[in-house]
């Protein structure tokens, strides 16, 4: 995506705008679980739904889900297509606004967001552009803020996202509706732009998905107890060789980002373990 030449114009290009209700529920629930405390303790915390698309559903839903963890948080939907902003304005209410903009993330009064969620925004970019976009968005965060960028399918059954702080990428989370998952590597088609072209031999993410499939196969006897129990067992085995976050991991993450999340069909891994060869 090429940047606009005039500084007064939003930075970015129009996306396809595809959206569906509940498409981002897995990402939203993870954010509320692992970042809700930071949102709750920050006065005037604002979260941005960047590139929400042709309909405002994801921004409306983000407000509702975040307020279960942080009752005073506000959400601003930011879209580069003016017609989409105009169509969303009737849905504004207390705590929910919509703005015309792009990667500059314009907020009233120079406010900085505690959260920027960018879902299905970077798929049309070249891989070489991702680091610069991440850096720009991270630069807009308030102290202690979080950028979450990733990709999901059209109805939110499979989703992979990267969480980034001011210092850079921290973790990669894989999330799925387990009843529809044949094997963990099915999530490969939803890898974020920084990783999707790296699912090839010799790259860490390829090795991770290979090992996850092996752990899933080894956990087949647990399938009689349900897909959730099989997933949890596979993740436990996987954690022997990969830095999976959890209550007993040395990653510094809270227990909310551990086995409690595994039972929701999620697993989170430190970015450094999956970063592309030559990254940075």
Automatic annotation (TrEMBL):
Per its UniProt entry, which superkingdom is the organism in? Bacteria
Which GO BP terms apply? methylation
KW Aminoacyl-tRNA synthetase (keyword) present: no
Q: Does the keyword NADP apply?
A: no
Under Gene Ontology molecular function, one entry of this record is: methyltransferase activity
Supply the name of the protein.
Class I SAM-dependent methyltransferase
Q: Which UniProt keywords apply?
A: Methyltransferase, Transferase
Name the species this protein comes from: Streptomyces cremeus
Coiled-coil stretches are: none
Sequence segments annotated as region (Disordered): 1-20, 243-262
Q: Which InterPro entries match?
A: SAM-dependent_MTases_sf
